Amino acid sequence: MNTLTIKTCPLCGGTHLERTLTCVDHYATGEAFHLCRCADCGFLFTQDFPVEVEIGRYYETPDYISHSDTRKGLMNRLYHRVRRYMLKRKARLVMGESHRKEGRLLDIGTGTGYFADTMQQLGWQVEAVEKNAAAREFALAHFGLQVRPDTELGGYADGSFDVITLWHVMEHLEHLNETWETLRRLLTDKGVLIVAVPNCSSYDARKYGAYWAAYDVPRHLWHFTPATMQQLASKHGFILSARYPMPFDAFYVSMLTERHMRRSCAFVRGLLTGTLAWLSSLVRKDRSSSMIYVFRKKQL
């Protein structure tokens, strides 16, 4: 297997990299992967992860819900119920932050297409890209969405979109800095970039350590905090306009973590931790299990 060893921090260019945690792939292989932190800026990332052309097999499991749409098990059924609510909330957020009831939207890493379909039904002109072929086929069969492979992302013209969304996608993308440059190019000058990612400085991440399910190695390559996300955006010509906690994520991630730890009463234990995480995020929203960031272009 070909792996990528990172020798310089992709955020600040520093070379003082320290091994921090060792995490296990609980979904597909049971393999262990190391997380490293940049001592200069604090950015955390998965080290020696499979290169892009080989990482696909780590997604090939029916339990990976964003691609398989599985309803197997209590937690996945709960995921679907929460998703219906969150789709409406995401749509309201897009329209509120963009000050538009319709426009041109690009959803990157659309998965099985639920969000792209929701926005299209609301009258938006939607383009969607997705790496996984099975997920693209699902979106076509269930929603009639013509989802493009991610290799076609660079083919869109400059300033093509009023809104670009990445819902739990940024952490998967190998070419991190190149992606941010593409996002800036594709967005209109007054456009809005919306990025949702797990927060590795959250209450539940601190509680569970290496077992935290949202580390999700090796599928998650980058592990963001509010500080490193804002620093990365600034590096590529964006300013932070707003940020929002994702309170339900703590419940799902905590339940999943408890299951991975093979602890009894995983649902109840996860529910308790999720509640404590939610209460913690009420005091400080930067402790939320996942965060939604809204960025706009810096005006030169």
TrEMBL record:
UniProt GO BP: methylation
Q: Name one Pfam family in it.
A: Methyltransf_23
Q: InterPro entries this protein is in?
A: SAM-dependent_MTases_sf
Q: Keywords in UniProt for this one? A: Methyltransferase, Transferase
Name one molecular function that GO assigns to this entry: methyltransferase activity
Q: Note the Gene3D superfamilies from the entry.
A: Vaccinia Virus protein VP39
The record's section on PANTHER family has: METHYLTRANSFERASE TYPE 11 (PTHR43861:SF6), TRANS-ACONITATE 2-METHYLTRANSFERASE-RELATED (PTHR43861)
What this protein is called in its record is: Class I SAM-dependent methyltransferase
- Source organism per entry reads Mediterranea massiliensis
The upper taxonomy is: Bacteria, Pseudomonadati, Bacteroidota, Bacteroidia, Bacteroidales
